[in-house]
Amino acid sequence: MQRVFRALLLVSILCSFSAAIRLPLQACRQSSTHTPCHRAIDGNTNQKWSGNSCSHTNMQNKPWWQANTPRLAHFHTVRIYNRLCGPGCSSHQNNIVIKVDGVPCASYHSSHYFSVKTFHCNRVGQILEIHSTVRSYLMLCEVQAFGKWASLAHTGHRIPLSDCRQSSTHTPCRRAIDNNLNQHWSGKSCAHTKRQKNPWWQANTNRLAHIKQVRIYTRLCTPPCRVYFRHIVVKVDGHICARHKGVGLGSTITLNCDSVGQVVEIQAMAKKTYLMLCEVQVFGTYASLAHKGALLPLKHCSQSSTHTPCARAIDGKLAQHFTAKSCSHTKMQTKPWWQAKTIKPAFIQQVRIYARLCGPVCSRYLKNIIVKVDGRVCASYHSTAGYLSTRTFNCNRYGSTVRIESTAKTYLMLCEVQVFGRYGRKPPTHIEPGTGEETGTHETGTTGESGSPSGHGETGEVVSFERHCIDGHDSSEHKLGTSWTTKVPAEGYCYHYSCTEKSEAGPVSVDCMDASGHCVKPSSEGTDFACRSGYTSCSCVHRDGRTGIIFS
């Protein structure tokens, strides 16, 4: 039975390789030259020195020979025709390793030399390398590769890239998005930085996109050159979405990303290295920019200081580059701000920001901002790594003045600010204490705030909290002991004020701004703040990972 199984397995393997074709090899190189490298791919299998058909390096430590296929291939087998000479000469062929894109796939170590030998490889790549592991000559009369062309399947459609930049320039960054897949230096189709620490290259999509995959065509070069490709990361809007690390970086690699953003960045991670990219392709779909309510025009803008006019952020132009002259820009200062007003008071549901797109150093200025309506915070963005390119914030505030403010010493660079909502008076809502349910219209002696209740909060359910004052006072006017109630907006943020009045459960602790919360603790009291009857106390988690107690 075992013999039958082995026979079937052998037949299966042979069938899988039966469709293999001879893969053409080209653009050869070798570590040193006694006779030219191209003799090993000239189609002449004569194995004698007199036939002038064998490539030959000089005597050296670990000599190598390499060539590449025209495009990505699945190497099934590699056949080597050695030079036939006396025993002393042939001993130089006893220790070799075969690599595809720098990764070993076969080897030969023996006291006996071979004349012709076929090695099973089973590796996908483009660069075929034969490497001696000792001080020796490397003498190859013919090298043949067999396999199939590899399929370059992708997810989504190809998204064009534009407006590239790189950390330094040896050759222009635009060569990596010129649609030329030539991966050789002589083809003048590869972007190339200078040698530096953590060099980077970036470009952006025409608009916000769901980037599913990034494909990189690296420069094909000799083994000493390819050490520069050992560790790279791919980022979208400053956030790492993929990483490739290994002995040999693939000649063509496709990395899954699954991130939404606009700026695609590739960075080599090393103290001193080059970044060499012959083509970068991005696959995915454009992201939907749905919004709530109507687009509300803004006017009467102002900003804390002026490098470029504030009006550029409300001129209707969505270009996000400085050269387009469509971005407002403050000077470097502490907590810079920009603001504008709606035509009349409105229920502002969302605020969308189109930030300036620039290099990683410049983009760090867009990491810490808050959004206010009539002086009250409705949304914020804080990030230690990434930055925003285009972002929509849920606000749910009634007012007229929309203000965007940085919380650090920085520039504030806004290419467009859009506000969505509806004109009108504050929505008449009366929220029953502790239920989070809308029960009817405003009554005398009560006050409600903007927002749509979302019902009860169950144990472990993500909800949002916003406190409203029954006695008609603002949070700044509250006095100890005055009454209040709560509601649950449907937007997924913790918005609350720093009222310090007493409640049945004690004083309010305000630790979590712009956070998602969970009703986590059962109660015997029968009611709770924005939680369903029977549950009490709510904890929340900041977007940056910190935790705190909203109500205690």
How would you summarize what this structure contains?
With 552 residues, the protein is mainly beta. It is built from 4 helices and 34 strands.
What does this protein look like?
There is one protein chain. It is built from four helices and 34 strands. It has four domains: 16-149, Galactose-binding domain-like (Jelly Rolls); 157-286, Galactose-binding domain-like (Jelly Rolls), CATH 2.60.120; 294-423, Galactose-binding domain-like (Jelly Rolls); 462-551, no CATH class. With 552 residues, the protein is mainly beta. Strands 1, 2, 3, 5, 6, 7, 8 and 10 form an eight-stranded antiparallel sheet that branches. A hairpin with a 2-residue loop joins strand 24 (368-373) and strand 25. It is elongated, with a radius of gyration of 33 Å. It has helices spanning 2-18, 87-90, 223-226, 360-363; strands at residues 21-23, 26-30, 55-56, 60-61, 64-82, 95-100, 103-109, 116-132, 135-136, 139-149, 157-159, 161-166, 191-192, 200-218, 231-236, 239-245, 252-268, 276-286, 294-296, 298-303, 328-329, 333-334, 337-355, 368-373, 376-382, 390-406, 409-410, 413-423, 462-463, 466-468, 485-487, 515-522, 535-542, 547-551.
Q: Give the end-to-end Cα distance, rounded to a whole number of Å.
A: 71 Å
Class computed from helices, strands and strand pairing: mainly beta
Proportion of β residues?
over 45%
Rg over CA atoms, rounded to whole Å, is: 33 Å
Q: Please state the overall shape, judged from the principal axes of the Cα atoms.
A: elongated
